[in-house]
Every structure is written in structure tokens, then in C-alpha cells.
Amino acid sequence: MTASLAPSQAPAGRRRSPRRRLGPVGTSVLGAVIGLAFLIPLWWTVVNSLRPGDETFRYLNPLEWRTFFTLTPTLDNYFALLDTDLGRAILNSLFISLVTVVVGLVICATAAYGLSAFTFRGQGIVFSVIILSFLIPFDAIAIPLADMFRDWNLQNTFFGLILPGLGNGMAIFLLRTFFLAIPEELVEAARLDGLGPWGVFRRIYLPLSVPALIGAGLMLFLFQWQAYVWPLLMGTDRDHVVGPVALSNLQGQFAVDYGVLFAASVILILIPLAIIIGFQRYFIQSVSTTGLK
């Protein structure tokens, strides 16, 4: 009988993965360090929103405990926001984002259903164009697209601000991949029961794709919530200003109150953060099941 190979004599092809070499403790420590690296800038922003603006950079050089903590927090910066247009801008952003989610999900889910449940000539070309659409940064086409919208008299209208976000290529790709994982036997059984194409879509595809729909809805929401260049080009009057544009308007020409600026940033961060945390498990489920058949 041949002796079993010692761990040091294991074949070269059986190398341990980095995760196994680290072990559970090492992986947890690495994850904690990465999470802390993302949390520190956010925490520093929150702390500086609770102190006067002239103290924002006071404790940066050298770094000390007061850089990330304050013993005299104040809400003056948040009260100062009441005299700005940020409140109206946040309501505009919420309206634009929510309408985009509702209407955009209908459009994206229908397009994904057509690309996954039917076969037609040019299907590969259509899908390639959709893939290409979210590989090209939107800001690269924003200026020529804005010229077209001005010719159509859509500047300073909510319709003009909402329209570009309705058809999201990444959302269509996510939903199509999820639809492809639905068992064909279930679809055939529904057709034998007398359901037509729209009946199968409404009673089979949509109920089974709730996690993917929520994940796609989050993409549509974040796309509109964080948009800056397009609202800056299309929403030039006070009634159609959105959150990111209102935030940039808080910077004065000769002086900047960083305390007020950070307070506005915290508010604009907390709204999508609360939504993401609330739907986190659905988003992770939609992404983790994408590509499984």
C-alpha cells in the first residue's frame, strides 16, 4: 500500500484557495477592515455635520480622537437647511425616483420577458444593444440628448427628467437572466391550463421574480436619486431642482459652510441607505440567483 501524501506533499494542482488559507477568523477580520474603511468617511461626514463649519478641518492635522468624535454636538447645521431649497429638492428627487421605479419596472420587466420567453429574428442583436446601453456612461450622451429634449420642449419638466431613466439596460439584463431560470415545465403547465402569453407573464413570471424585481427597482431608484449631470442640464428652474443639484448650490462663490454642506449630504445619504437596508436581503437574493438555471 502506498502511504498517503502529507499536507506538504500534496499535488501542486490542489492548492488551497485564499479563503481557506485565511480561515474563518482571518476572513472575518479582513471583512471588518474593509467595512471600516468604507464606514470611516461616512462617520466623519456625520460628525462634521454636528459641529460648526469652521471646525471641520481643525482636527485633521494631526489626526486625533476629536477628528471622529465631538463632545458638543449641535443641530444648527440641520436647522440652517430649512432656509434653503433642499426640502423641495428632496421631494422632487423622491417623486422622480418613485415614478421611475414604478413605470421603469413595467417597461424593463416586459422587455426582459420578451427577450427570455420568445424567439425572434434579431433577438441577439437587440440583446447586444441592451448590454451596450449600460456599458456606455450616461453622462457621455447627456449633452446631445439634452439638445434633443430642448427641441421637444421637455426642459424644466418632470417628464423630461424621468424619461431617460425608464429603460435601464442593467435592470433588463438582471430580469431576463432571472426569467431564464424559471422552469420551462411550469410555463408549459400554465399554457395547458389556458393561459396566454400575458397570463403566463402576470401569474407565473412576476410572482416568482419578486426578489429580482426589487433588485431592479433599487437600481432604477439609485440611478435617478444620484443623477447630477442630467438634472443640471434639464432642471434649471427652482421648481425642478433635485437633491444633488441643490447640494452643489449650497457652495457659495467665495465661502463654503462645510457644516451645512455635510448636513445636507447626510440627509441625501440616509434616504437611499434606509431603503437599501430595508430591501437588502431581496437585493442579495436577486444578485446571487442571477445566472442560475
From TrEMBL:
Residues 1-20 are annotated as: Disordered. Residues 90-279 form the ABC transmembrane type-1 domain. The keyword Transmembrane applies. Residues 1-12 have a biased composition (Low complexity). InterPro entries: MetI-like (IPR000515), MetI-like_sf (IPR035906). Keywords: Cell membrane, Membrane, Transmembrane, Transmembrane helix, Transport. Pfam families: BPD_transp_1. The chain crosses the membrane at residues 22-44, 89-113, 125-146, 158-183, 204-225, 258-279. It is found in: Cell membrane. CDD domains: TM_PBP2. Its main location: membrane. PROSITE patterns: ABC_TM1. It is a multi-pass membrane protein. Belongs to the binding-protein-dependent transport system permease family. PANTHER family: ABC TRANSPORTER PERMEASE PROTEIN MG189-RELATED-RELATED, SN-GLYCEROL-3-PHOSPHATE TRANSPORT SYSTEM PERMEASE PROTEIN UGPE. This is Carbohydrate ABC transporter permease. It comes from Agromyces soli.
